[in-house]
Structure to design on (401 residues):
């Protein structure tokens, strides 16, 4: 079947999918019922924090992540043992995947026919080159072997014009914007084992969270063809630049909202659990006056450090591309205000207020629930909701691709 044909056709009727958001600070899981032609229905959700480490150790981090994955899937299924999900959809944030956009250009003096076989050969060649690239040779040996999880043509142009269905057409010039991502094979295998141990016939799917977020924003906000996506997680922040509906570049830096807890430990001389408690009390407005002032200073200092790295990311991106003035960001709801303001201030600092005001959007619970239904009493987890917004499209693309 054609690479592009029938993207939304042939959907299964009333089946359940286990959706797993694999972040750097926590693991979220949702049991979702999909009925063709109606909004996804979230039956249950669960989220497990990856235990905090004062000093991050990669191998220990992997072990803790896998334990949190077990707990999250157990939590979401504990009252629904009678339901058998047929598919599991993993969406991976940094550092669990590495991605790249490749811009492929072919031209010939005479028209040539775009065939499905030729199109696939181009994608397979680029995928093979990307998969064999060593990304971090200094990391743990068991995480060095990568496996391809995404290979998607985001945009195809013939003779400079975008087309939705290039197969069977002729052109002198062919341009493909190809999104590729890989993950460590060991991690992939452990995810598959975790789910097939309980459901032997479940079909696994792997995508990057950033690609799911890109699709969700692009398909929802048609007026925004160019924008920035920022995903602030516990340990890592991902930044992606989209221009003309193509995710051109993404990068990460190793600082997220867990930096606030670490700074609380240092500044107040507290152990791990006590620092986490102090942060939560402050976020809930329950700290006394003296502690509130101390925590305000800690938050300001931690976010200043984050802003410096975010400014560096914007500066690096701006060396290659014009920076859009629209920013969509995802962050745990407790930290939305703090990082939303920091995003706008950082952009103004890099580019100057004379370049125009940046339009910063947080995709919150109220907005996301327009696109799905939620079982009464369940939590609307924003990261899971972003994935569920685009779930059916990506599952169908996996089948057709």
């Amino acid at each position: 079947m054609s690479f592009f044909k029938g993207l939304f056709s042939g959907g299964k009727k009333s089946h359940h999918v286990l959706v797993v958001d694999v972040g750097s600070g926590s693991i979220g899981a949702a049991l979702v019922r999909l009925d063709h032609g109606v909004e996804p229905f979230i039956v249950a959700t669960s989220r497990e924090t990856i235990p905090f480490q004062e000093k991050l150790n990669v191998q220990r981090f992997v072990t803790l992540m896998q334990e949190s994955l077990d707990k999250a899937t157990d939590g979401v299924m504990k009252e629904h043992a009678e339901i058998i999900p047929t598919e599991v959809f993993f969406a991976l944030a940094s550092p669990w995947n590495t991605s790249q956009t490749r811009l492929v250009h072919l031209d010939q003096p005479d028209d040539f026919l775009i065939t499905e076989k030729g199109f696939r050969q181009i994608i397979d060649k680029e995928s093979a080159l990307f998969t064999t690239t060593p990304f971090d040779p200094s990391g743990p040996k068991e995480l060095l072997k990568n496996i391809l999880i995404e290979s998607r043509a985001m945009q195809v142009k013939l003779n400079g014009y975008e087309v939705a269905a290039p197969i069977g057409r002729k052109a002198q010039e062919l341009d493909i914007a190809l999104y590729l991502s890989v993950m460590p094979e060991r991690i992939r295998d452990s995810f598959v084992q975790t789910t097939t141990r309980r459901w032997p016939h479940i079909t696994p799917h792997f995508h990057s969270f950033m690609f799911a977020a890109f699709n969700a924003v692009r398909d929802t906000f048609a007026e925004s063809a160019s924008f920035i996506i920022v995903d602030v997680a516990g340990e890592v922040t991902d930044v992606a630049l989209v221009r003309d509906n193509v995710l051109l570049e993404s990068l990460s830096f190793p600082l997220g909202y867990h930096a606030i807890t670490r700074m609380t430990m240092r500044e107040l001389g507290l152990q791990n659990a006590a620092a986490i408690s102090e942060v939560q009390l402050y976020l809930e407005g329950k700290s006394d006056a003296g502690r509130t002032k101390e925590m305000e200073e800690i938050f300001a200092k931690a976010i200043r450090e984050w802003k410096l790295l975010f400014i560096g990311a914007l500066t690096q991106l701006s060396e290659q591309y014009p920076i859009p003035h629209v920013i969509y960001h995802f962050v745990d709801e407790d930290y939305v205000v703090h990082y939303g303001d920091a995003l706008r201030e950082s952009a103004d600092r890099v580019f100057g207020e004379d370049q125009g005001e940046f339009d910063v959007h947080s995709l919150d619970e109220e907005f996301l629930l327009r696109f799905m239904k939620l079982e009464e009493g369940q939590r609307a987890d924003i990261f899971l909701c972003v994935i569920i917004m685009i779930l059916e499209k990506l599952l169908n693309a996996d089948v057709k691709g």
